[in-house]
Amino acid sequence: MSAAAPSAVVTIPAPRTSADDIVVSVLPGLYVPEAFQWLSTSSGRVALDGYSWMQAVHWVAGAGLYVPRRHRSHGPRTFGLSTVRVAQELALLFPCRPGIGYLVRRTGLSERSVEYHLGMLREAGLLAYVVRGTRVKGEAAQASEFARMIPTEFDVALGIRTVLRDEATPAYTRAMTGIAEAGRELMAKLAKQAARKVRKPRKKASKTSSKTSGTGAAEGAETVVSGGARCTPMQVGTSSSPSAGTTSLPSETTGIASGKSESSTRKKSGATARRGVNRVGRRYQLAADLIREIPWLGRASTPRIAWVIRHVADAGWSSAEVRAWLHARGEVDTVHRASGLLATLLRGAEQTVATPEARAGMVSDWRDSKAAAARRHQELEAVPQGPRSQAAKAAWLPYLALARPVVPADYDKTVGILVDQNVDLGLSAQEVADMRAAGREEYSYGQSSMVRTTITTFGRPAAEYILGAELVHRALNIPRPTRPMALARR
Fold first, then answer.
1. CB–CB of 296/338 below 8 Å?
2. Domain end marker among 375, 396, 418
3. What is the per-residue pLDDT across 230-287, written as a single tens digit (0 to 9) for each?
4. Is the same domain home to 66 and 190?
């Protein structure tokens, strides 16, 4: 090589890396050991809502940083479509306490497959135990409660800045304050994926005629086309490539050959694409959403629920607005017939809350109450719950009684002395307890004389305060003396 050769070398700058390149190059792998799959030991942060959590789920699914093959010898080999479908069901739960049987019904997977996918979500740092489910002999099985987590690797890959607003709170409560410019494009793609519902793929049978092959027709075999392109432009067979990359129909199959212009055909197809569902379709959509989101509607029939909610569906109510109305009516403990209870609770709802603004305010109040309940739940997490087995409880309760003195029922914490909480009604606490016991006994024999007398004497609000709103409501619905009934206790 001559001496002038080095001067001829031209330095070419390296191409600018994209957001996807940053994900793969900066982070070599993603795996959370079992000891760090708890909320108290997790390095991630709690997702504030299911939508932002699904963005992290789609990022893990597309980044390829977590591969189950590296960490387990059995179960699924990829973080794929089935795992995302399980995550979609978890994103709708509040709190996130799914039963295995519930996820089996919702996803169509087997019980073992659901357990595999839950384990993969924990190993990827997307789920963390809050309370682990137990199976104690002689007691009902308890489902595990999870916290939806966003891994630290996700924040690093997209350049997300977080801050801990209160130094006294745990590290997993830190909140997002900004994002780097390089991660905005990838975040937008993840937002579109999180907004799109992933469904189970359907197997399509081949339309290829097998008349020339007698064995193929007799066996009913399906012809599956491999590769990225289809056999013909007529969409014969199935393809593994996305629909956006397939060949469009030839002009001979459109209306041009029959004398129609291409513009009119395109205009007609566009109008068909923009056409939404009709009134009955909206009823069924709202019914399906309510069955999925409300636990006590899990086994209800979709056509029956669609008929029950027809009035609110025709008025334009959403599932969130229906749930907010049900929350305002009160919580439900025992449900014997879900469709009948829903019809009773929704009676006159579209007339009471008639405007979209009123419904929006109702939903806002409901979400505020959910947030307050979540904060109370986090405060109770630090309180030790004690053992679950009966033998351990028997040994532990005497020490608990010594450490926690018995407080009377009418103890006022704000004043610090014993007071009569029913002094405004002229009744003592013992008299109220006696009236409630007598009212329940009368109701068990189908009588409501005491409840009606209390309403006449003190008024209905005071009667509900003394006897309980549930007892008053049920006693007033007794048309005539009937056989003894049982009142469900809270």
1. yes
2. 375
3. 333 333 333 333 444 444 444 433 444 444 444 454 555 454 445 677 989 999 999 9
4. yes
